[in-house]
Amino acid sequence: MSELRNQKVFVAGHRGMVGSAIVRRLEALGYANIVTAGRDQLNLLDQAAVHAWFAEHQPEQVYIAAAKVGGIHANNTYPAEFIYENLMIEANLIHAAHKAGVQKVLFLGSSCIYPKFAEQPMREDALLTGILEPTNEPYAIAKIAGIKLCESYNRQYGRDYRSVMPTNLYGPNDNFHPENSHVIPALLRRFHEAVKAGDEEVVIWGSGKPMREFLHVDDMAAASVHVMELDYETYARNTEPMLSHINVGTGVDCTIRELAETVAKVTGFSGRLVFDSSKPDGTPRKLMDVGRLNALGWEASIGLEKGLQNSYHWFLKHEKAIRS
Question: Where does substrate bind (predicted)?
């Protein structure tokens, strides 16, 4: 492990919610040689630029946290961008890592890779066993391709490219855009603005009945580094040659109504909650089976209310910048 912590580590997407959390985690563990590259330094959609960057910087580990992400509205509105950009980012990074001789890569996917009506909780072997949720199918297909890229380079070239599939994430550096954000930042902002405006009600998309699992991004970062640091023998014992991805979550879910009630509590909103059933619900339930990750020695530690308080405090601290 000490050898890994002395290596040069490239975190792609370090300015995003997940990438910044991974950088924080690596620094806390004593990693002293972390390299990053913002969009002004490296366009991950440009294959030649990515290959040139790897040739120049020669990282020994790569965390692929860079991605185009968004909620139901964004996925419905920009499906072409979601599939194209995510395919290009992961393909460029994984192939460039291989060509540069990087042996260790961690690819971050999403729980949306699983079929819409997958048996709950969703096991890793549910992948490709049914149709996907239509609202985010392009994004899901791109993430599935990333898993298969890692598997293929492992099988053909003997690489150690691992994949982790997080459940719904939230926390510091989240996207709080009023239309293109995920459910937690969208609700935190909406309830916060309702409190400031003195509104008596808050309208929430959907029926409130779908169930979702939520993981604080600091837990996600801790799990990612944990999986990356596992010795190959331990990791291989808990995966299969053609099933190399690992679910990351809490193993606990709640309804969107319960989530909204908790957000109301955290933000101090005391009015009515109105659910707009004319808006899409998405997948009825998305709960991850995290037995494999637990067997590898890691469990989530940040509860939902505590995590929401942390995320809301971050939002309050950065509200002016978010609105500018």
Answer: 190, 205, 212, 281
Instruction: With residue 255 as reference, give the H or E element that holds it.
Output: strand 254-255
* Number of structural domains the chain divides into: 1
The half-sphere exposure of 309 on its side-chain side, counting CA atoms within 13 A, is 6
14 is in an annotated binding site: yes
pLDDT higher than threshold 60 for residue 324: no
Termini Cα distance of the chain: 43
pLDDT band at 78 (very low <50, low <70, confident <90, very high): confident
Residue 298 assigned as binding residue? no
CATH of the domain at 223: 3.40.50.720
Whether 51 has a binding-site annotation, put simply, is: no
- Answer yes or no: is 169 a known binding residue: yes
Single pTM value for the model: 0.93
Is 139 marked active-site?
yes
CA-nearest of 281, 278, 287 to 257 is 281
- Given a contact cutoff of 8 angstroms between Cβ atoms, the answer to whether 146 and 163 are in contact is yes
Count of C-beta atoms within a 10 Å radius of residue 222: 23
Mean pLDDT of 222-242: 82
Please pick, among 139, 153, 170, 312, the residue that the annotation labels catalytic.
139
pLDDT tens digit string along 83-126? 999 999 999 999 999 999 999 999 999 999 999 889 999 999 99
73 assigned to a ligand binding site? no
User: Is the pLDDT reported for residue 179 higher than 90?
Assistant: no
Angstrom CA distances, 52 to 48, 157, 214, stand at 6, 21, 37
Give just the sign of the alpha carbon dihedral 319, 28, 235, 249: negative
Cα 324 from Cα 320, distance rounded (Å) = 6
Asked if pLDDT for residue 265 goes beyond 80, the answer is yes
State mean pLDDT over 134-163: 95
Domain hosting 223: range is 2-323
Asked if residue 43 belongs to a known ligand binding site, the reply is no
> How many residues make up the chain in this entry?
324
pLDDT, position 69: 83
